Amino acid sequence: MDGDAGRATVRAEGFNGLRRAAASLPAAWYGDPAQHAREMAAIWRKGWVAFARVEALAAPGARLAAPLAGMSVLALRDGAGALQAFHNVCRHRGAELCPEGAGRIAGGRLSCPYHDWTYAEDGRLLATGKARAVEGFDRAAHGLVPLGVAEWGGFVFVNADGGGQGDFEAAHGRDVVPLAPWRPETLAPVHSETIDIDCDWKLFWENFNECLHCPGVHPALSALVPIYGRGIMEREDDPAWRAHGPDAPPALTGRLREGAESWTEDGGAVGPRLPGLSDADAARGQTYAEILPSFLLVGHVDHARAVRVLPLGPGRTRLEATWLAPPDAGIDGAALSVFAKRVMAEDAAACEGNQRGLRAAPFASGVLMQEEYEIAAFHDWIRAQLEG
Ligand code: FES
Ligand SMILES: [Fe+2]
Fold first, then answer.
1. Measuring CA to CA, which of 27, 61, 297, 335 is 20 to 30 A from 276?
2. Which ligand 1 atom is at minimum distance from the Cα of 93?
3. Residue whose CA lies nearest to ligand 1 atom number 3
């Protein structure tokens, strides 16, 4: 995560780390319905959030409706091939316009099942069913309420605050630079998993943003990525990192263990190095990009893995993981997924334990240690978003 919003204390001179212990967010913020509602409004409905894979909206006339951060969202591919997104709510008296799930738009029109108001693919209200025109009603003012929509890396993102592709790039172009060599838009899903976790969405990111838990929670991962076994995420997290050259052992550089190539059960790659990766990209073992609050992408030498984060409610979070590889490469996605799926399950159990403790009286707030600099930056980002 970028530390722009962070305090001066987030990173110490010369290495990644907190210089001083910092208080974590109030325990009451994890699972409290009023706080959850504040976060949905101030964070999730104020920026770009992942909505779907592009395959779900590939063909003109395809539509997809799903709940998202307290909204019902309808995205569609119009007849001209452009993506559109709207609040899936009829402007008459607020009925759900399209049923949840995928479907097709018949004749380029969307009709409300309640009283048959009909909308064009661009959201314009075309007809009001049996309701006659009445004084004081302006049809042009009752089109569907649009959301911003953009595509990146084979995923569709929406923004309740509006905007288009250029706005998405301006907001997140920098976040995704590390994964650009993977050309994720050229990769196809080979496997997907959905995991619901009894934890606040913020706990997912906190856990993702530190590796102090790795030695205890992830024995296999810590063997594959030896630096994780030291409780840190990358080379620069060690105050003495400058003393370790690129040829230092993996535990000091962050590379995979000797002989391993990818995040698989035996450490072997499932395919050739993805075109576009440099030697450094390939050697790194894992490369991360995040689009807060809803999306992360991890690149390995032969495949990538995306995780969409979806808040289901106070203290409840869904993860949708998608393993991505070159199309038609014949990769066994289920076999490929075994390793990272276990890591996800280990993390889910850790997050649920964290959530249970946060709910228990009288715990009020925790403390962030040197290695938890990314969590401090995340907390600063949360506070800044909430303050608007
Ligand atoms: S609520 Fe949709 S037509 Fe009445
Ligand atoms: Fe973890």
1. 335
2. 1
3. 115
Which residues surround ligand 1 with Cβ inside 6 Å? 90, 92-93, 95, 112, 114-117, 129
Testing ligand 1's pocket by substitution, the residue of 89, 114, 145 carrying the most ligand atoms inside 8 A of its CB is 114
The least confident of 70-74, 113-117, 242-246, 304-308 is 242-246
* pLDDT tens digits, one per residue of 62-75: 999 999 999 999 99
Task: Give the span between the Cα atoms of 113 and 168, in whole angstroms.
Answer: 33
Instruction: Report the pLDDT value the prediction gives residue 245, as an integer from 0 to 100.
Output: 86
pLDDT, residue 328, reads: 87
Looking at the chain, how many residues does it have? Answer: 388
* φ, ψ of residue 318 in degrees (nearest 5): -110, 140
Q: What is the pLDDT of residues 234-257, one digit of tens each?
A: 999 999 999 998 889 999 999 999
Helix, strand or coil for residue 77?
A: strand
For a pocket test of ligand 1, which of 72, 111, 112, 119 has the largest count of ligand atoms closer than 8 A to its C-beta? 112
Q: Which atom of ligand 1 is nearest to the CA of 129?
A: 3
Ligand 2 centroid to Cα of residue 284, in Å, is 18
Q: What's residue 10's pLDDT? A: 58
145 alpha carbon – ligand 1 mean position (Å):
14
**Which ligand ends up closest to the CA of 111?**
1
- CA dihedral sign, ordered 64, 66, 72, 73: negative
**What ligand 1 atom has the least distance to the C-alpha of 94?**
1
Give the pTM: 0.96
What is the set of domains in the chain, with CATH numbers? Answer: 48-167 (2.102.10.10), 175-387 (3.90.380.10)
Using the predicted structure, report yes or no on whether residue 5 has a pLDDT greater than 70: no
